[in-house]
Amino acid sequence: MTASRLMxxxxxxxxxxxxxxxxxxxxxxxxxxxxLVEVVARVAxxxxxxxxxxKMCCADFLDAADDNHVWRHVSLDKLPLIQWFPNxxxxxxxxxxxxxxxxxxxxxxxxxxxxxxxxGNIRGLESLKMAAEKGHTDAxxxxxxxxxxxxxxxxxTQGLEHMRFLRxxxxxIRCRKNVVQTAxxxxxxxxxxxxxxxxxxxxxxTCKGWSVKKGQWLLLNDDDDDIELCEYCRWDHEIEFFxxxx
Length: 246
Known about the structure:
Blueprint: H1 3-20, H2 24-30, H3 33-46, H4 48-55, H5 59-64, H6 68-73, H7 88-99, H8 103-114, H9 122-133, H10 137-148, H11 153-168, H12 172-183, E1 212-213, E2 216-217, H13 231-245
Antiparallel strand pairs: 1-2
């Protein structure tokens, strides 16, 4: 066999090997639609920027990104809490998020509606409730604390359920810090919340309180919630903090 024929045979073999390899596009097209949607949704839940870049990669990702499941999980971290000067594109984006049941969108909408009216807004409270029940932790904290600030025992019981969930999940401190950030937007007590609700603990004169160290309240980290003293005093102190920033 001559050198030229040997070279031609080698090149042909290389071409066949290359052609038999699956291209990235072919691999993506071979995936089921629901799997593609789940992949895109996970990217969207971490970064809206990464979602945008992913949509630019190929038509399959672009198509999958239009699924409601993706919109339900897309992160809004890059968007300001309040759209002071929203354009049509931003409004359309947020509307699609709301319609798809995006919990962060429901939470933001609930905050705006509840704290933007003189006597509160039922629809705003409903949005907070929906976001809380879907697992949004900041919404659970805000909704739970609003209920604890009422004078209705049934509502306070519901509020305790949300707060106990957060306490068990070790995320009270993070939610509290986020509320402080939220308060910077001047969403203040609109008259709906009682300024001094009836204490949950009915034995203030004899109760030893919750986590009293060195003569003062200590609410620095979630590890403090492992201390089993008076739970009601613990939430009374949380209410006091909540009303001081809202």
